[in-house]
Input
Amino acid sequence: MARCGIVPTLFVTHRSAVLEGAAAAGKVQLGIHPNFGPGSSHGHTVDEVLDHVLALVPEPVASRSHCYVDSSAIAAALARRGVTLDSNLCCHLQQGLPALRHWNGVLRLPVFFEDDVHWTTGGHWNFAEYRELFASPGVKVLNFHPFIWALNVPDGQFYAAQRNRIPTLAAHEAQALRHRGAGAATFLDTVIDWVRRSGGEFVTLAQLCRTL
Output
């Protein structure tokens, strides 16, 4: 993303010296990606999970739960821990999305586009079919998973065949395994090119908040 002049927000699940270095250099911003699901490696209770992810990113820009898990207990705990922004609601390709104020006082920026939801709902990777939706009014938060982007994943079948590589995927493996046709990464490339050519710009979640 740096070569495109974009500073993405990465929602962190585990310690990474690479991400910490990129954040220190201002190339990325870091949020937390707590896993509140059964058997989570992050912990067995809401507080244990938040202890884990906040140890990784003590001052997160935002929070987005794994699988968008939410509850009153989670919402209260996030606010109690000082989280002021989340992006924990997926409203795929919906026009006119507003920024929401959750009952816990946290500002919520809904996700407008998510890569795996796109293929799950029968979406295609021809951006021309969705250009008008992207140009419509409303919040436009785009959620792309690093693994899906790295392999240019086109569909659920391809993902299921490769997902076991998520913890260990190396750059040379990604190049060899990458889908050569249209997929999530080629779609994002087209979106970036369209935004630039149409006079738009990408901003960080923090910058977006300041405009609301």
Summary: The chain has a mean pLDDT of 95. The longest strand covers residues 9-12. The CA atoms of residues 102 and 108 lie 6 Å apart.
